[in-house]
């Protein structure tokens, strides 16, 4: 995503409770439809997974009054969604090569890797941001373009892409 040309479609802070998961999904769906994006389903799924993970595994869900931030950008070619939590002492888990399709946990980052055109994460002493980008369906990206790590975005640094860990 070209950070300079990306416009903020919306930003919201949600309580770190399970009730925020469907709110986050509806918020992203509404923003993307209002922006003329015709297929927000995958973005909706991924934001729901990431917000649920933020609530389950970070201080956002552990601490009373914890919050999860959500930011959505559009540069005309790709949509970028960022989920910002209040951090965790645990590192971001590794993505399994395969997941159990019947498991009720352990699929979030695998889904993000499989369904997004790019993704990554950053962490500092107070927060963690996990972001993903969605290219329009049929954008014609080849695997090398799809797996690239994009620098210069609003919350970028190191993190992960579809190809695995990224070092700074």
From TrEMBL:
One Pfam family of this chain: HATPase_c_2
InterPro entries membership: Anti-sigma-factor_SerPK, HATPase_C_sf, HATPase_dom
Domain of life: Bacteria
Protein name as annotated: Histidine kinase/HSP90-like ATPase domain-containing protein
Presence of keyword Transferase: yes
Entry GO MF terms: protein serine/threonine kinase activity
Region (Disordered): 137-168
Organism (species): Sphaerisporangium melleum
Kinase as UniProt keyword: yes
Keywords, ordered alphabetically: Kinase, Serine/threonine-protein kinase, Transferase
